[in-house]
Write a structure and sequence with these properties.
This is SCP-2 sterol transfer family protein. InterPro entries: SCP2_sterol-bd_dom. The protein is α+β, with helices and mostly antiparallel strands. It has one domain: SCP2 sterol-binding domain (Nonspecific Lipid-transfer Protein, Chain A, 2-Layer Sandwich). Helices cover 49% and strands 18% of the residues. The protein is built from 7 helices and 5 strands, in the order H-H-E-E-E-E-H-H-E-H-H-H. Strands 3-2-1-4-5 form a 5-stranded mixed sheet. A hairpin with a 6-residue loop joins strand 1 and strand 2. The protein is globular and about 35 Å long.
Length: 166
């Protein structure tokens, strides 16, 4: 069962990274949060500290997805879970990332101000991907998608990662 959780976590993390790229062009809430992050800001998100990180980078007020990296260097912010089970709870839509962060289930290495923006961006992406009920429970408001869930998932799955230096 743990192996299945690991596969689900890896798939959802990749989907979140790719969806950030697509939604950075489309969603006004994500555009607003990106404006708080410095140019060329890089972030890595992982299930566990020594695991694979998805790496995203802000360039020209858009997000670029750089895929998985084992030990990313020169990263402004690293975000990972204290326990793999905590990661599964968040990535399988049983709990929101903001709640996990407030309950100290998520570890942040980097500037806390930027971490808050990144966590909100991830929460918005999760709301797009997951069910309407989850979105309303997590965001505690009427969540309106600016692109359909199906369209986002298909575009995300067909998106290539950026090549080159992070």
């Amino acid at each position: 069962m743990k192996y299945l959780h690991h596969i689900i976590d890896k798939f959802i993390l990749s989907l979140i990274g790719r969806s950030c790229t697509i939604l950075s062009d489309r969603d006004s809430r994500i555009k607003k949060e990106l404006s708080y992050l410095p140019e060329n800001f890089t972030a890595g998100v992982a299930v566990k500290k020594k695991g694979l990180y998805i790496v995203i980078k802000k360039q020209e007020n858009k997000v670029k997805y750089f895929g998985y990296h084992r030990y990313p260097e020169n990263i402004d912010l690293k975000l990972y879970f204290k326990d793999e089970e905590f990661a599964y709870q968040v990535l399988a839509a049983k709990e929101g990332i903001r709640q996990a962060f407030s309950e100290h289930k998520v570890v942040v290495e980097g500037d806390l101000e930027y971490a808050v923006s990144l966590i909100y961006i991830i929460e918005i992406v999760e709301a797009y991907i997951m069910s309407d009920q989850f979105a309303e429970e997590v965001l505690a408001s009427n969540f309106e998608r600016e692109i359909s869930r199906l369209q986002l998932i298909f575009r995300s799955l067909s998106l290539f990662r950026e090549k080159g230096e992070i």
